[in-house]
Amino acid sequence: MADSTLPLLLEGYAWLPDRRRRGGGAPVRTRLLGRRVIALHGPAAVRFFYDEKHIRRHGALPEPVIDTLFGQGAVHTLDGEPHRVRKGMFVRLLSDPAAVRALTDHVGLEWRRAAAGWAGRGRVVLFDEVAGVLTRAVHAWAGVPLPEAGADGVARDLVAMVDGFASAGPRRLRARRARCRQERRVARLVEAERADAAAPAVGAGHAVRASHSGDGRPAGDGERGTPFHTVVHHRDAGGALLDARTAAVEVLNILRPTVAVTWFAVFAAHALHRRPGHRVALRGGDPAFALAFAQEVRRFYPFAPFVGGLAADRLTWAGRTIRPGTLVLLDLYGQNHDPDLWPRPYVFDPDRFRGAPVRPDELVPQGGGDPATGHRCPGEDITLAVLSALAVPLADLSYRVPEQDLSIPLGRIPTAPRSGFVIEDVRWPGPQHPFRDQ
Questions:
Q1: What is this structure's pTM?
Q2: In this structure, is residue 435 part of a structural domain?
């Protein structure tokens, strides 16, 4: 059986759907990096894949992906009870409606600050600007100190971790260096937080600490309840605190995915440029349409091509035997463009998400399954809320799109418009703006 690593690197998102079409829709069997692979497709495959009796994650992710995107010891690499306990922490943090609203409040504030400065600046690269907005917003929301002078560098590092996970070249090297820098930065903050918490009480039974820690952040009980505080003091299945580096990894697994919404936000701008009629509906302030628009952005545009795990036992799928240890891929990009699930799949149409509930085993831009019990991303609520919230001010913003390369190369993972989506002649609409209730 020929190895498909090189074709995957060259063809990107198109590799698996093309192989499946050439095989008449049958599960794709091949090898990647010498490992046996079978690739599955469809809602029934989603349910099969996310059954922990079938698929395990430990040992499934290639080291280059762990070393760039997720981090060593991350929740994504766990199974069984250790996974359920760690994942439960993320579900509680990221699925609470009040917490999600608080994050979108921060996003709105940072968007207004940034967009007000774009007028008169000439050319603005939207990708870079949105990454900065989301970096500042998620740090403020999560309670993670972010020196203003270093915010742009942190944003670049968080973007690099996502941008380099599927590359074997310079992008991967940048991603690895970025992860090392940010893990060291956050690990120092974790250690400082724990040192503050362990400081002895002084006088009248009250803990008195220095007004600021060494990195300029306020110290004391006011930070309790933030995602940062929760991760720092989380105890795993065995009852022990995470070591500082693993805690930093999991803090970054809150910060990095939120900044990764940058890709979807720029895709939203691309969709509005191609189909400007949607601006009117978004400006009308209908939350249902904003949500439908966000869902269609996630379905239509490429993000994750597939997810993978290892066969936990001898399995049977569609009459085919899967040997233990086989790498099982679940086709995401192909399923989100399957005409049997999505009529006219290559037409951008938010109305397909109006009125009918979204089935979690059909729409899978960030994977499938149950976020509470399985490996589905617990941050989907945040992705949808932030993307819905950003789509409205983006539709309100007045700007010109100059001549540029807006192609989206499917051979590059993750992909985005080649130009980063450049805008000019930005006119700030003022305070009567999308995050209106703030």
A1: 0.90
A2: no
